[in-house]
Amino acid sequence: MERGLADCDAVNCKMNRSYFLSLLARALELAGRYEEAFQAIDRGLLLMDETNERFCEAELHRVKGALMLAGGSKADAVACLERAVAVASGQSAKSLELRAATALARLWADQGERGKAHDLLVATYDWFTEGFDMPDLKDAKALLAELR
Question: Which of 7, 21, 78, 118 is deepest in the core (most CB within 10 A)?
Answer without folding.
Answer: 21
